[in-house]
């Protein structure tokens, strides 16, 4: 069970201005009030990630070009809670020490053996360290931000545009063709990540709810099935 979320799709080209931002240009605003447009692209990314960490918490929502969905709230240093999905949606609670998931019983049973469907029905799964590696990105807000937003080096900046109702500057990533929109007023927080080929409803990841309280609460012990304690089915020898 894995959920792939990357900063941008592959491809060397990127437009001079991300297509989803072209529809909302703020006339008369030539410079970023917070001065972010005067910095080198790499410095803008560093300052944006630092501002993100300083808030302590944030929410990530959206759908990738590949069809994966995410709605996760992060509390830095504590973990995250929410849903991720591809063909099926998985609810998770992730901490640096444990990852719990729940969702469609049949889909989860396929991951641990078809004969345990009744065992895991209605339960949270404490997944093994090996399986949890696919969810490690969700265990810490800073790790997620660095992996998704810092996976590529930006080489340029757009002009100031209005994104999600506020002025922003776009960081352009040459290897992947993506654009990260960073607030041009106040702290340079990430606002939106657009993958190459993004269109309405796909390829757009939004960053919101900075500094709001996030409760990362592991499920009750009696609602958890520890997958490391479930015997792995073995094939019956052929006489």
From TrEMBL:
Domain of life: Bacteria
Name of protein: LppX_LprAFG lipoprotein
Organism: Jiangella ureilytica
